[in-house]
Prior knowledge:
The chain is of the alpha+beta class. The protein has three helices and seven strands. The protein has helices spanning 13-20, 26-29, 118-141, and strands at residues 2-9, 33-38, 49-56, 59-71, 75-81, 85-96, 99-110.
Amino acid sequence: MHFSESFSVRAPPEAVFAYAADFRNLPDWDPTIISVDKSTPGEIAVGTEFRVKLKFFGFDTEMSYRVEEWEPGRRAVLRGTTPVATAIDTVTVARKGSGTGVTWDAEIRFVFPLNVLDPLFTAGFRSTVTAAVGGLQRALRNLPGSADSPRD
Length: 152
Protein backbone atom coordinates (compact mmCIF):
# COMPACT_ATOMS: atom_id res chain seq x y z
CA MET A 1 0.00 0.00 0.00
CA HIS A 2 1.32 3.41 -0.91
CA PHE A 3 0.04 6.72 0.38
CA SER A 4 1.27 10.20 -0.47
CA GLU A 5 0.14 13.55 0.89
CA SER A 6 1.51 16.99 -0.04
CA PHE A 7 0.87 20.46 1.31
CA SER A 8 2.58 23.83 1.79
CA VAL A 9 3.27 25.87 4.91
CA ARG A 10 4.73 29.33 5.44
CA ALA A 11 7.65 28.19 7.61
CA PRO A 12 11.29 27.88 6.55
CA PRO A 13 12.36 24.52 5.06
CA GLU A 14 15.04 23.94 7.70
CA ALA A 15 12.53 24.31 10.56
CA VAL A 16 9.95 22.17 8.77
CA PHE A 17 12.44 19.39 8.15
CA ALA A 18 13.85 19.53 11.69
CA TYR A 19 10.36 19.07 13.14
CA ALA A 20 8.77 16.67 10.64
CA ALA A 21 11.70 14.28 10.22
CA ASP A 22 12.37 13.94 13.96
CA PHE A 23 10.13 11.04 14.89
CA ARG A 24 10.16 12.10 18.55
CA ASN A 25 7.57 14.69 17.44
CA LEU A 26 5.14 12.06 16.09
CA PRO A 27 2.97 11.93 19.25
CA ASP A 28 2.31 15.67 18.86
CA TRP A 29 0.58 15.31 15.51
CA ASP A 30 -0.21 11.65 14.70
CA PRO A 31 -3.21 10.41 16.71
CA THR A 32 -2.16 6.75 16.32
CA ILE A 33 1.19 7.27 18.07
CA ILE A 34 1.37 6.56 21.80
CA SER A 35 5.06 7.31 22.36
CA VAL A 36 8.46 7.48 20.64
CA ASP A 37 11.88 6.85 22.14
CA LYS A 38 15.12 7.57 20.32
CA SER A 39 17.18 4.48 21.08
CA THR A 40 20.56 5.55 19.70
CA PRO A 41 22.75 8.36 21.06
CA GLY A 42 23.83 11.50 19.23
CA GLU A 43 22.35 13.63 16.50
CA ILE A 44 19.84 12.14 14.07
CA ALA A 45 21.65 10.65 11.08
CA VAL A 46 21.67 7.50 8.96
CA GLY A 47 21.48 4.62 11.42
CA THR A 48 19.53 6.44 14.15
CA GLU A 49 16.84 4.21 15.62
CA PHE A 50 13.48 4.97 17.21
CA ARG A 51 11.02 2.74 19.10
CA VAL A 52 7.51 3.80 18.16
CA LYS A 53 4.51 2.60 20.18
CA LEU A 54 1.27 2.95 18.27
CA LYS A 55 -2.35 1.88 18.00
CA PHE A 56 -2.87 -0.53 15.13
CA PHE A 57 -6.53 -1.31 14.50
CA GLY A 58 -7.24 -0.88 18.21
CA PHE A 59 -4.21 -2.84 19.45
CA ASP A 60 -1.04 -1.41 20.97
CA THR A 61 2.05 -2.46 19.04
CA GLU A 62 5.64 -1.38 18.65
CA MET A 63 7.67 -0.67 15.53
CA SER A 64 11.42 -0.30 15.35
CA TYR A 65 12.32 2.52 12.96
CA ARG A 66 15.77 3.14 11.49
CA VAL A 67 16.89 6.19 9.50
CA GLU A 68 18.00 4.96 6.08
CA GLU A 69 18.51 8.33 4.36
CA TRP A 70 19.11 11.70 6.00
CA GLU A 71 19.59 14.85 3.94
CA PRO A 72 19.16 17.67 6.49
CA GLY A 73 16.73 20.32 5.37
CA ARG A 74 15.58 18.22 2.42
CA ARG A 75 14.71 14.51 2.77
CA ALA A 76 14.55 11.68 5.28
CA VAL A 77 13.65 8.02 4.80
CA LEU A 78 12.85 5.86 7.82
CA ARG A 79 12.06 2.14 7.75
CA GLY A 80 9.83 0.68 10.45
CA THR A 81 9.52 -3.04 11.12
CA THR A 82 7.38 -5.40 13.15
CA PRO A 83 7.09 -9.16 12.78
CA VAL A 84 4.06 -8.66 10.50
CA ALA A 85 4.77 -5.47 8.55
CA THR A 86 7.30 -3.03 7.17
CA ALA A 87 6.63 0.70 6.79
CA ILE A 88 8.80 3.08 4.80
CA ASP A 89 8.14 6.73 5.60
CA THR A 90 9.68 9.43 3.44
CA VAL A 91 9.44 13.11 4.29
CA THR A 92 10.57 15.57 1.64
CA VAL A 93 10.69 19.35 2.01
CA ALA A 94 11.58 22.04 -0.52
CA ARG A 95 11.38 25.81 -0.64
CA LYS A 96 8.15 26.86 -2.31
CA GLY A 97 7.72 30.59 -2.75
CA SER A 98 8.09 32.18 0.67
CA GLY A 99 7.38 28.88 2.44
CA THR A 100 7.91 25.17 2.18
CA GLY A 101 6.35 22.33 0.22
CA VAL A 102 6.07 19.12 2.21
CA THR A 103 5.42 15.60 0.93
CA TRP A 104 4.92 12.61 3.21
CA ASP A 105 5.02 9.21 1.51
CA ALA A 106 4.16 6.02 3.36
CA GLU A 107 4.67 2.53 1.95
CA ILE A 108 3.21 -0.26 4.09
CA ARG A 109 3.87 -3.91 3.36
CA PHE A 110 2.41 -6.81 5.29
CA VAL A 111 3.94 -10.27 5.35
CA PHE A 112 2.07 -13.30 4.09
CA PRO A 113 -0.72 -14.18 4.86
CA LEU A 114 -1.76 -10.70 6.07
CA ASN A 115 -0.79 -9.17 2.72
CA VAL A 116 -3.86 -10.77 1.13
CA LEU A 117 -5.92 -8.38 3.28
CA ASP A 118 -4.28 -5.27 1.75
CA PRO A 119 -7.49 -4.18 0.00
CA LEU A 120 -9.32 -4.21 3.33
CA PHE A 121 -6.50 -2.43 5.19
CA THR A 122 -6.11 0.26 2.52
CA ALA A 123 -9.27 2.19 3.42
CA GLY A 124 -8.40 2.22 7.11
CA PHE A 125 -4.83 3.27 6.48
CA ARG A 126 -5.84 5.97 4.02
CA SER A 127 -7.97 7.75 6.63
CA THR A 128 -5.25 7.27 9.27
CA VAL A 129 -2.54 8.73 7.02
CA THR A 130 -4.76 11.64 6.01
CA ALA A 131 -5.53 12.45 9.67
CA ALA A 132 -1.85 12.21 10.64
CA VAL A 133 -0.68 14.45 7.80
CA GLY A 134 -3.41 16.94 8.68
CA GLY A 135 -2.03 16.97 12.22
CA LEU A 136 1.48 17.53 10.87
CA GLN A 137 0.26 20.42 8.74
CA ARG A 138 -1.37 22.07 11.78
CA ALA A 139 1.77 21.54 13.89
CA LEU A 140 4.01 23.05 11.21
CA ARG A 141 1.78 26.11 10.94
CA ASN A 142 2.55 26.79 14.61
CA LEU A 143 6.34 26.53 14.32
CA PRO A 144 8.29 29.61 15.36
CA GLY A 145 9.15 31.50 12.18
CA SER A 146 5.99 30.39 10.40
CA ALA A 147 3.93 33.23 8.93
CA ASP A 148 0.90 31.28 10.23
CA SER A 149 2.26 31.02 13.79
CA PRO A 150 0.17 32.83 16.40
CA ARG A 151 3.42 33.42 18.32
CA ASP A 152 4.96 35.63 15.62
